[in-house]
Amino acid sequence: MTIDDALLAQAAELTGVTESAALLRQGLQTLIRVESARRLAALGGTDPKASAAPRRRPPTRDSR
């Protein structure tokens, strides 16, 4: 695997993490988290038959 030394140095400077394996692990975890969120957001609003979720609980008989 070839990793850009300047990119690795910049990541180490910004994070304070100097171990290459730890930097790579954190970078991959961040990439996975960001892409997962992007995909989840892209799913929003794709069900035209869905009804809006209620904003408040309906009153109960025991309301005081």
Give keywords.
64 residues, mainly alpha, 55% helix, Antitoxin VapB32, VapB_antitoxin
Question: How is this structure best described in words?
Answer:
Helix content is 55%, strand content 0%. The chain is mainly alpha-helical and 64 residues long. The radius of gyration is 22 Å and the shape is elongated. The protein starts with a helix and ends in a 21-residue tail after the last helix. Pfam families: VapB_antitoxin (PF09957). InterPro entries: VapB_antitoxin. Residues 43-64 are annotated as: Disordered. This is Antitoxin VapB32.
Q: pLDDT below 50 for ≥5 consecutive residues: which ranges?
A: none
What Rg, in angstroms, do the CA atoms define? 22 Å
**What general outline do the C-alpha atoms trace?**
elongated
Oligomer: single chain
Strand content: under 5%
The helix/strand series, from N terminus to C terminus, equals HH
Strand tally is: 0
- Compute the number of helices: 2
Overall average pLDDT: 89
Distance between the termini: 66 Å
Structural class: mainly alpha
Largest sheet: none
Helix content: 40-55%
Organism: Mycobacterium intracellulare 1956
Region (Disordered): 43-64
Pfam families: VapB_antitoxin (PF09957)
InterPro entries: VapB_antitoxin
